[in-house]
């Protein structure tokens, strides 16, 4: 998993509440277990017409936001089914950070396991970030995980909270396998002790 330390990039505003995982990545894209290639299906039903052409009004189809790295979204983002393809699709598109007032628990945890920083902010702070994001490609946000700050294009800074274990894992690029490997010496010492006692 890629480490998340700092991120500076264009933020795409999505003033929609209750964006569920089926809207993030529709069911027809769930046939694969590969994490790559899903970016093309991200928000597919909102991005494309029935004939496959792009809907020009959708935010990620607009020139200013085609290379967005951050998503500023409405309340309860990632609700619905627990599909891990949702963070895979966001990551494959290039989104490394999602900011909202709340997230569905399973989606929130899946983000951290896939190197995406999901940040919870107050409604007032979210409105400020929406206003920044709506300024387009000339206004970027800077996210510093170690400092737990989001800096706007005019230099204003917001502080956010994050659980220490989640922060550690993201800063060090540790998914569940990585966490296990980090504890390999202790596991090996324990197994050696069992072997000495004839229990292994």
Structure description:
- By secondary structure, the chain is α/β, with parallel strands linked by helices.
- It has one domain: Aconitase, domain 4.
- The protein is built from eight helices and seven strands, in the order βααβαβαβαβββααα.
- The protein is globular, with a radius of gyration of 19 Å.
Structural class: alpha/beta
User: Strand-and-helix sequence, N→C?
Assistant: EHHEHEHEHEEEHHH
CATH topology: the name is Aconitase, domain 4
Number of helices: 8
Oligomer: single chain
Key structural traits:
alpha/beta; 200 residues; 33% helix; single chain
Summarize this, please?
With 200 residues, the chain is an alpha/beta fold. It is built from 8 helices and 7 strands. It has one domain (6-196): Aconitase, domain 4 (Alpha-Beta Barrel).
SSE order and pairing:
Elements lengths: L5 E9 L6 H4 L19 H4 L22 E4 L11 H9 L3 E4 L4 H9 L3 E4 L2 H11 L6 E5 L4 E3 L5 E3 L4 H9 L3 H7 L1 H13 L4
Parallel strand pairs: 1-2, 2-3, 3-4
Antiparallel strand pairs: 1-5, 5-6, 6-7
């Amino acid at each position: 998993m890629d480490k998340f330390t700092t991120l500076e990039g264009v933020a795409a505003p999505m003033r929609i509440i209750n964006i569920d995982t089926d809207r993030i990545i529709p069911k027809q894209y769930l046939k694969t277990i590969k994490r790559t290639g899903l970016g093309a299906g991200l928000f597919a039903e909102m991005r494309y017409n029935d004939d496959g052409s792009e809907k020009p009004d959708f935010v990620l189809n607009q020139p200013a936001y085609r290379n967005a790295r951050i998503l500023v979204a409405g309340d309860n983002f990632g609700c619905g089914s627990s599909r891990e393809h949702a963070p895979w699709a966001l990551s494959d598109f290039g989104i490394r950070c999602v900011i909202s007032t709340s997230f569905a628990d399973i989606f929130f945890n899946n983000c951290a396991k896939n190197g995406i920083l999901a940040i919870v902010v107050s409604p007032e702070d979210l409105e400020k970030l929406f206003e920044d994001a709506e300024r387009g490609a000339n206004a970027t946000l800077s996210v510093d995980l170690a400092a737990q700050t989001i800096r706007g294009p005019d230099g204003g800074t917001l502080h956010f909270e994050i659980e220490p274990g989640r922060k550690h894992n993201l800063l060090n690029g540790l998914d569940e396998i990585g966490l296990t490997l980090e504890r390999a010496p202790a596991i090996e010492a324990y197994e050696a002790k069992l072997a000495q006692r004839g229990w292994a």
